[in-house]
Write the structure tokens for this entry.
Amino acid sequence: MTGVSALPPGLLLMVGALLLPLFGRTARTVLVLGLPVLAVALIWQIPNGVSLQAPFLDYQLVLVSGDRLSRLFATIFAIVALAGSVFALNHARTIELVAALLSAGSAISITFAGDLLTLVVFWEILALASTLLVWSGMTDQSYQSGLRYLVIHLLGGMLLLIGVVGHVADTGSISFSAMSLDSAAHWLILAGFLINAGAPPLSAWLPDAYPESSPGGMVFLSAFTTKTAVYVLMRGFPGAEILVFVGIYMIFYGIIYALLENDMRRILAYSIVNQVGFMVCGIGIGTDMALNGTASHAFAHIIYKALLLMSAGSVLYMTGKRKCTDLGGLFRTMPLTTVCGIIGALSISAFPLTSGFISKSMISAAALHEHMATVWFLLAAASAGVFLHAGIKFPWFVFFQKDSGLRPPDPPINMRIAMILFAFLCLAIGVWPTVLYVHLPYPVEYVPYTYTHVVGMLQLLLFSGLAFFIMLPYMKRTLTVTLDWDWCYRRLGPRPIHYLTNMLAPSHWFEQKRIVLQGYLKRMLDTLFLYHGPQGILARTWATGSMVLWVVILLGIYLIGYFY
Amino acid sequence: MKQHWLVRRKTIRVLWFIFIVVLSLTVVAGLFADEHAVFGIDGSVAFNAWFGFVSCVAMVVIAKLFGRLACRKEDYYDRS
């Protein structure tokens, strides 16, 4: 089936984003809020199977190809674009909103991309738009982090592109379907996907860049890049065993680093890696139940993580402070922000009646179902760890802890509305899981609310809480950064270069050698110019006669050579 | 300045008392759950309670030890 059946929703957002600067303030607000709503309507018009193709060289690009999974991811991307825009309206500059809608549009386009070339194109647009979002922090820090972010993502995009080219050379097909890890090309594609997911060793870009963005910018950032990676991993590599190990590493990496962190938004950034770890692990398990768990967890995670970041963003917006050591006691004057932050924290911890409870547990249940004992025990420990590092640590240090003396009021009305909306969704999905379950890729047989499960989860979480308060003296925040693999490109790599420049630059010896070398180069260029320049003997116009003469001589030599 | 009621010493004592009561209740409630142990150890009494507690303590200790190795002053990357 070919032909334009409807406007692609991703394209709508991207074109709308680029037109945004042309409008005045009111029209811009209408567009920013209206486009995501329109996009949701279009997403649900997209039928199963291919609905838009375009020829390119010898290939048919599949620009829009829908199914349950792609519609689910596209929907949540559009929803977060809407709520994030509501949240950002009062403080975001136009360029930030443009970047936000561009990221949302490219993320949605990735979910509907039916072939690898289309995927790569939108993958790169997403990387560029996200870099703009990082820069929206408008500080030197955010500029530098944004550059590091861009370099890592261009590297990821390059690996992906090389992999795709290799795949096309091997199979002759550009269609995007499940792959097995049987060739170098497929490993490269996997590496490209995993870099965007925040997998080791290149996960430091996430806690490095995201917290430097503006209060609203990080809400957008948290949703698109890592979750499109989860989506393409679900499509490309379901059941790849290596993902179980990668996921487990990410889970515990996130917990340990978040426990050591002092910056509230960086704590939440580490916990993004942690949560994506659960999803990557689910993809590695690869059964229908695990993939359902991954899809629903991605959906629920985008909402509660955005809520947590809105709550942290409100605190940052109202106080200008990010460090736990500077914050505390804000519950007195920011009650709404506190309550919404706590609802987000309970959801990420998978408390009963919140969205995390009905999604994350499906992944654990899938591990249990497959009798993967070690994985199951580690996931259980990790659930406790999530409550520890995000569920209690974030609200405790920001809103309670000590009295910091700060008395900021709750944020402006648009930010409050966005938080209330997402807090409601966190609870609604937790109370009525069927609303989400009916849209999952496979039929759901899982029942989250059993007596055993509810009591077990409460025990796990409440005793983790007990551990937190008993260990509180050891959790005291310190003014430190924790080294990560990014040390290699922020310290190890630049160090010898700095060392050499410092050693050589002021040296007289070096200056002399440079002049001598420059002299050599100049003489070499002069010689080249003499023979090959416009008047050079080897470059000037020759008479036809002399050419004929040389041809005759050459043919003569050839003839003599032929005879003897 | 008057202290907020939530941070008064007395309130905190009451909150601890309620917390401990709730903790005990979950353990008691757990006794009536039909735990069918899949891996053996997960069928032990109040498994989720002690497993959650122990793993949290372990994670904090590991994080502390790792922090000794990997934590640097805040301006570490700003110094050239």
